[in-house]
Amino acid sequence: MTIRLGPVGRPSRAGRALPLTLALGLLCAVAGCTSSPPNSTITVGAAASLTDVFSDIAEAFTAAHPDTTVTFTFAGSSTIAEQVRQGAPIDAFASAGTAPMSPLVGEGLVNGVVDFATNSLQIATPKNNPARIQSLADLPNATYVVCQLEVPCGAAASELFARNSVPLAPSSYESDVRAVLTKVIADEVDAGLVYVTDVLSAGRVVAGVDIPAEDNITTTYQAAVVRDTGASEAATLFVEFLTTDEAQAILAAAGFGAP
């Protein structure tokens, strides 16, 4: 920056009128000051399976960053990805699975991608498991639902059935994992394919039937900052917070695995 000087090397009137805030900014530039982001609100578009745990993570995040308010929109990851592509007001994206995130990276619509959790599938049944489902092999003789195949939980379910040589023939394909869980809770079906964390979050209203680890599918969760956000600093802080020990402990308590 150049400051014009008046006669005899003294600052001109314009120089003498240099605003205090600008002067302080110059001082910080020299001294290497850091600053926290100004008051801001960010919207995080997140996978439906993160609905419960992100409430706790947002509480921890805002305790550390009280000048930032976090709001969420939850849906299937592929739905959120399309909203980002269409320019919806989303500042950060948290995806179940890498498939919804990868195209956005390729298109330059997000940056700063981090892996922050993993999850695996589980069979959810009404709390008394009336159909007596014990394994994946029992599902062809029962009524069950899975996520739509373009949603990560649906893609994982399809891969799971193929890996275990079980035909995939659900009663319906639901919009996201919470829609699957809702049908199970309402006792409308014998079972549904959801994540381990969804069974835990539902508590005693459903029962979970484990799938052996060697037969199961692992889903990796990723988060990134949306390129066109107007709150990039706050959004970046939130994405980075997901990998901190504090956030990882919250995720682990909810049943998520380490990335």
List the keywords.
alpha/beta; single chain; nine-stranded mixed sheet; D-Maltodextrin-Binding Protein, domain 2; globular; 259 residues; 10 helices; disordered N terminus
Short recap of the structure:
With 259 residues, the protein is α/β, with parallel strands linked by helices. It has helices spanning 13-16, 20-31, 51-64, 77-85, 101-106, 152-163, 177-185, 196-202, 232-241, 245-253; strands at residues 40-47, 68-75, 92-96, 110-126, 144-147, 172-174, 191-195, 206-209, 218-226. The chain is globular and about 55 Å long.
Number of domains as seen in the coordinates: 2
**What class would the helix/strand composition place it in?**
alpha/beta
**Roughly what is the average pLDDT, rounded to an integer?**
87
List segments where confidence is low: pLDDT < 50 over at least 5 consecutive residues: 1-36
Report the sheet-strand fraction.
15-25%
CATH superfamily of the largest domain: Periplasmic binding protein-like II
Determine and state the CATH class of the largest domain: Alpha Beta
- Multimer state: single chain
Note the run of SSEs as H and E: HHEHEHEHEEHEHEHEEHH
Shape: globular
SS summary, helix count: 10
Give the tally of β-strands.
Answer: 9
Write down the Rg: 24 Å
CATH topology of the largest domain: D-Maltodextrin-Binding Protein, domain 2
Q: Supply the CATH architecture of the largest domain.
A: 3-Layer(aba) Sandwich
Instruction: Give the % helix.
Output: 25-40%
The biggest sheet, with number of strands, parallel, antiparallel or mixed sense and barrel status, is:
9 strands, mixed
